Amino acid sequence: MNDDYDYRATFDLSQGDLKAIDQALALLEEKFSILDEAAEEDYPEALPFFPRDEVFIRKAIPVLRREGDVFIDDPDVEVDEVRGHMLSIAQLRPRLRRLRELVGRGEANVLTLLNEAYDACAMGVLTLDRVRPRLTELPSLREAMSCRGPNVMTLLPKAGDTSLLDPSELRELAGGKDQGQGGAA
Question: Running DSSP on this structure, what letter comes out for residue 35?
Fold first, then answer.
């Protein structure tokens, strides 16, 4: 991360910005809800697709349409359906690429910020250890810092306020408790 980077302005999003993002995500979730969850067995092992396969499909469509009575033996083959699939791919691919790039940049930023926040907290715990060795929270802070136990949850308020954690982080913490793993970034 750039040393001149102002961490306080990482994401200066207004409530309107957040609402617009949430609406865009809701639209994407709605549109993608018709898709099945892909399982590993759904992917044909012996049939990887490459760019040349897409070129073949695009070149074959007009030939199949023009010479359908010669080439198409299967009544289930609909050239217009194949053409529709290719149009969907053309619409989705650039947007999915942009989403992947944004997710990658966002994840990298989250990891960098978590690393810096963890380092700052660790330095603070070390300072507290020198200044106030009888601090009651110090054992759980030290345990969380050293990744020796699942007591990161003890650092949350007594009411269990997990509002700053997203659901995947909560699942990871719950899974870490079961496996006896710590919860540091």
Answer: S
Side chain identity at 57, as an amino acid letter?
A: I
Burial of 98 from C-beta contacts in 10 A (0-12 / 13-18 / 19+):
exposed
Cβ-Cβ contacts under 8 Å for 112 (sequence gap 6 or more): 1
- Using alpha carbons, select from 164, 134, 139 the residue that is nearest to residue 154: 139
List, for residues 80-105, the tens digit of each pLDDT value: 888 998 998 888 888 889 989 988 88
Scanning the structure block, which residue is given the tokens 């957040």? 18
Residues 7/113, Cβ–Cβ less than 8 Å: yes
Computed over every residue of the chain, the mean pLDDT equals 75
Q: Which of 1-5, 11-15, 17-21, 54-58 has the lowest mean pLDDT?
A: 1-5
